[in-house]
Amino acid sequence: MIPDAYELKRIVRAHRERFWCSDLLGAAEFAPIYFFDDQAAFDGDIVDRAMTRVLTGPLRLPHPSVIFEVREQRASPSGLIVCARADSDIVEATFLMRKRAPRGWTDCLVRIWMHPDGKAEIEGNPAERHDETVRGHGEVAAGIVWRALTILGASPEIRDRKVSLAKRSRLAREGVRGWVWRQVAIDPARLRAATPPQGGSHASPRWHIRRGHWRQLADGRRVFVRPCEVGDPTRGGIVKDYAVEMPQQ
């Protein structure tokens, strides 16, 4: 089994102009893939507690452009994919999902800009009219980036894997490149060692995202009040809702 991101690379190679955020997908076309196949561990509390180092410092991707893939363990969707790139001190990313039934891919669901101060801007796909759906997809996208960087920062076991010759030949004919992908093993012991000690004060809640919302102005315009981060990051963070539902057609 190879990451779903290879199928995405193939589709982007042929049909990139059909996607929203096609520039980010173009940057990801040759990007390395970091594959996390243990969703339960990826979403686990130990990653929450270790996340403070990432949340309190500038984000550093392992490559200028990178793909993070989390293999969903429920029936559908099957793959959660974030394509991210570094732009100076800002990380820009988009989020897609691969569906098992019916087979196919979503368009880019959101575009996010993650700033050095820990704040994230979220822009929803213009075709999505539900604010709560945009917010949820944005939180998932940011959470995947934060969690992936937290795990990689704990010196995990990373195995360089290769696409089999049979699959490589078919993909190569369609312009896909980059045959080594990295499978990341999540080691709770290493994450605990990377976790700062937690204090005993209850003066501030753990870090979490406060939901964005629409506000009606006096002149009739509607503006989106962006999500913001609240709470004390030294007490840990909470970004763990990955029960992603596909929108009803």
User: How many individual domains?
Assistant: 1
Structural class: alpha+beta
Shape: globular
How much is the average pLDDT?
80
For the CA atoms, what is the radius of gyration?
A: 18 Å
What is the chain-wise order of helices and strands?
A: HHEHHHEEEEEEHEHEHEEEEE
Short description:
By secondary structure, the protein is α+β, with helices and mostly antiparallel strands.
Topology:
Elements (H helix, E strand, L loop, with lengths): L4 H11 L6 H7 L4 E4 L2 H4 L2 H6 L1 H4 L9 E7 L7 E9 L2 E10 L4 E2 L4 E5 L5 E5 L6 H23 L3 E6 L2 H9 L6 E6 L2 H6 L12 E5 L2 E4 L5 E4 L2 E3 L1 E7 L11
Parallel strand pairs: 1-2, 1-9, 10-14
Antiparallel strand pairs: 2-3, 3-4, 4-5, 4-6, 6-7, 8-9, 10-13, 11-12
Descriptive notes:
This protein has one domain (5-186). Helices cover 28% and strands 31% of the residues. The chain has 8 helices and 14 strands. Strands 1, 2, 3, 4, 5, 6, 7, 8 and 9 form a 9-stranded mixed beta sheet that branches.
Relevant terms:
249 residues, alpha+beta, 9-stranded mixed beta sheet, 3-stranded mixed beta sheet, 8 helices, disordered C terminus, SnoaL-like domain-containing protein
